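Appendix B. Raw example, untouched.
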Amino acid sequence: MNRREFAQLMGIAAAGGMLLGSKAALGAPSPGALYDLARFGNVHFLHFTDCHAQLNPVHFREPSVNLGIGQAAGKMPHLVGEALLKQVNIKPNTPQAHAFTALHFEQAARTYGKVGGFAHLATLVKQMRAGRPGALLLDGGDTWQGSGTALWTKGQDMVDAGLLLGVDVMTAHWEMTLGDKRVQEIVGKDFKGKVDFVAQNVSTTDFGDPVFAPYVIKEMNGVPVAIIGQAFPYTPIANPRYLTPDWSFGIQEENMQKMVDEARAKGAKVVVVLSHNGMDVDLKMASRVRGIDAILGGHTHDGVPQPVIVANGGGKTLVTNAGSNGKFLGVLDFDVRGGQVRNFQYRLLPVFSNFLPADKDMAALIKKVRAPYEAKLNEKLAVTQGTLYRRGNFNGTFDQLIIDALMEVKGADIAFSPGFRWGTSLLPDSPILMEHLMDQTATTYSYSTLTEMTGSTIKTILEDVADNLFNPDPYYQQGGDMVRVGGMSYAIDPNAAMGARISDMRLHGKPLDAGKAYKVAGWAPVAEGATGEPVWDVVAQWLRQQKTVTPRKLNTPRLIGMRGNPGIIA
């Protein structure tokens, strides 16, 4: 470390309120060590996913609860905290430990600063490309949704940023919530001749014709490589069907095998899948489809430092997942000789904005696209006394804030908030700006609702969502987290059978009556024709009245049968 880097480190540490000589001090960050990744092999892929439209650096707290059940218990990606660090041999109290876990979040966030930001990501992409001739940049989707500016520009801010970043190939999920016509407009105009938008599992509902190219083959350093797209399989279920009424999705495992075989027959010596399945689904697919060298995955936001190597009938497949919010860049290098992959190198690099200078061209673009909205984004709604975050199987403090606001403003007995995985984090004593609220709520269907539901209906909803999360067959998991619940308590046994996971539902300490109707507030209904005040208006109204938001007490279910599970930080 040179003198300038050392001086920068002193400033970063002092800003974090640390005594560097104390035992509690976090490990010294070394920018050179983090990003000193020598070239390996002759085929190179750079991969990011699930940035959720975060153009500027943010804080993002990784989950303290990410349960694996059945065969997935105790295995990647269902390891958190110290269990994760031990598995991948990352030292505690280091920048990498902060990037991959929720341990000492507040102190580490203040010490190491924010993560992500497209201007800093652009610098890292250029650095990795400089030593990797022909490297392809792959975007795993969930790029055009997740911020106020992405919503208000119909994704154009992110389309322009992706083009400037140099994305070569992309697949999708939340992009579809802009509507089929908008997606086709971007693919047909903005991306034409520049970005290959691939999805082997999206076809028309009438004749089953492919909507997008299933794959693309490119030559890199004399080696033909194929990238097959896998869009989120459950888009019409997890999101409103009316937004893509004429398109069919699904996992389409048989067609995936067909596409792999077809690409190989056309000469591809390396085949990778750019996937938005979620990691558990990718692991199962890797065990059943032959001929895939690697699956570069997304959707479940798992930052997985090392690939999982899965054996199948045709050999072995690497399965990766590259986190979210623009805070990671995956770098996969293959050594291909004699038409075969001989070896590989993989690194999931955290994007620390303090350690990477901002790319000037990207910074200028970001400033330009945000300019018309700055006043709205920067409205100070309140101040939070506690950390606000979203991420984890059952609840987060920002989710809790939303359901607390919904119950109070709507006069509800109970509130539900979707188990979305996107949404940035705020440190204690931070202002809550309109931008931060939009980071949690910005979708094209964020209507707030107030509905009467019987106790029986409430149980059915909770059971359905629990099965989406904890079904032992990954192909039946839809990859979200459990619906966040306000007002009532309940118990859950993730290992139980479908329909028998939820029990002991209580409101104010009294058991819910199966036949009694309760007022339930919620938002983001997927049914066509739903209307209501935008949820950000409801929550903003509440925040303006509060002015100061006290630390939120999480309403989480009582877990049954999960003691000792390494997917929980005790």
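End of appendix B.
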